[in-house]
Amino acid sequence: MSADEELAKDLGLFSAIAIGIGTMIGAGIFVLPGTAVARAGPLAALTFVIGGVTALFTALSASELGTAMPKSGGAYFYINRALGPLFGSISGWANWLGLAFASAFYMYGFGEYVNQLVGAPALGLGPVTISAAQTIGLAGAVLFIAINYMGAKETGGLQIGIVFTLLAILGAFTVVGLLNADMESLRPFAPPGTTGEVLPVTAIVFVSYLGFVQITSVAEEIKDPGRNLPLAVIGSVVIVTVVYALFLLVLLAAVPNELVANNDTAVVKAAQLLFGQYSLFEFSLGTLGWGLLLLGGLLATASSANASILSSSRINFAMGREKIISPSVNDIHPRFGTPYKSILITGSLIIAFLLFGNLEILSTAGSVLHLIVYGLLNIALIVMREAEPAEYDPDFEVPLYPFVPIIGTVSSFALIAYIEPFVIFLSAGLVVFAAVWYLLYARQRVESAGVFAGWILDRSDEMPDAAVAAADSVRPDAAKTPTAGTNGGDFRVMVPLSNPRTEKDLITLGGAIAKQRGGTVHAVHIVQVPDQTPLKRAEQNERIDAESQKLLEQARTDAETFGAPVETHTVLSHRSFEEVFDAARTFDADQVVMGWGPTSHGRAESRIDELTHDLPCDFLVLKERGFDPSHILLPTAGGPDSVLGADVVRLLREEFDSRVTLLHALSEDESADEGEQFLEEWAAEHGLADAELIVDDRDVETAIEAAAANATLVVIGATGKGLLSRIVRGSLVLDVLEDIDCSVLLAETARKRTVRERLFGHNDD
Predict the structure, then answer these.
(1) Strand pairing partners for 566?
(2) How far separated are the first and last CA of the chain, in Å rounded?
(3) Of 16, 288, 663, 745, which is least packed with CB atoms within 10 Å of its CB?
(4) Alpha-carbon distance 669 to 664, whole Å?
(5) pTM summary value
């Protein structure tokens, strides 16, 4: 298996907002007003507002989950992590197919707008007639699938440019419309028979609000996600809702409603009418208005379709990474560097949906599948809040909890009831398929059981028997083994690699731990790229790829000598040391085994402190002087880090039949008898009763130096918070660790900062 490649965080706030707005301002406002006005009259503007408010509740929940778990896959990943792989399968398939339906809808709208220019005839294929819009949409779909297949680069600047162009066109139309608005045209605002159409029409137009969750799909690549992700998600929904409502009100106040109703390109005709009342140098501006809105429709539908195809490949990536589907779907094309299989599968679905669907079916199918995902996403937030897993630490929290996620859940599922029965039946069939897919295929392959199942099973004595039985019956097979790690699946040991000279020792240590815990080694080569070099350009560097493949292949060979499964990854980043912590979160590591050597990161000490005082998992840092675990010395004075050290020593003793010595240096007010009693009890409590025990009345450094003279490896727990950061900064309290001749392994447990520490910092000295 080739190494996975990861990209570091390089999307800024405006690029993230552009992803959301650029996906939302699409066929929704350029195509659906005709259908909405025909059924709801002026109340059509209200349907877009209701859709936006419904989306906003889910946007708030998505923002909290995104800052706590900034991972590729967005909503799918959060649901899978919180509710487990059964619901992960349902949400993943719903999100994937929902994007395919939405892309087909966007391309249908694209065909309608192009047809305004070319006036193509319908195409007859035997008994089947394909409309001009479908024919053009099919050609456009093939074009965009090919663009994504061959990997044409879409820069953040280009996407921002498209978004601002669309907003400028809609703004110009709104200003001209306001100058010609007649509020009497909006009366009656609720014509007879239209009030009952508000929610059904809202369900149809909800496809206009699918873009905001796609921001969370690229959360791994957003700079400062704690700040920028909520601003981008919530901001894009608010901006688009205001634009939609104002635009439609002005449209209906400025032109006859009959012109808009049942017209898929009504905004173009309305622009021609409104701008035609003005002239410049004796030329009517009607053609200019027609051209601007036609350009806007083309840009909007095209960019929405392209963004949806891009997002679908990220959903596939996340599903493959969690083994809901085969990871081979994410195979990278050897020439173009794109997930070509995923793109081709999604593209085939888009073409099929275009051939057999119409505008309303495509829009409602896209809406209902995403409403299922949004409802589950709000439930996922409630589960994470109530279960309080140790790793859940969002930088943004939903206000008015639990009312916001409850309203988001109810409103999302309630809208589904107003969609036509055929589409509901189709979506229900998909849910059944996704559940059966999990039970028959994915259950034997996935590793994470999810937070909800673990929460129920941990309280099996208190919970109803039916709930416990249900939670146990749908758990993945791998999660039922006694060696499950803290991520809910197998124990994951991440080994960051950079130096071929130290690779073997680090992999030996990581492989031994993984084998004893029945876990997996994740060998990660973090390649530091100069700030001047774009990561996308570095991704194409054949020398980097060759060196990384060579290093990781050797790591794979070394790890497999222990019989431990190994996965390899390459991470391209402008950072090095800092990226270790992000990678540990990305791969859900239970333990990190890394090298300890000279550092020169060019970062302020406060940034190093921020990282090392908020460890995502347990860290083992090896000062390598020839790795030899035959005689291990473990100094201890108690504490959680010494407990971690004892765990590691037991694993190494089991694997290498090591001789173990425990050392306790007496404190000033501690007698020799008290020290011996402490050490004997501590050794028995931590499974090391047969170890050699040494009690020394000298200071800690002298005692360690003397005992280490006969040892081949010293394993020491951090004696205070932040010892890892002191290694990085070269200000160790125990300088003897630099002076002794044998290898040293520092063990430091994961810990979260308290509120006081966040406000006032740390005091380690």
Answers:
(1) 521
(2) 46
(3) 288
(4) 14
(5) 0.62
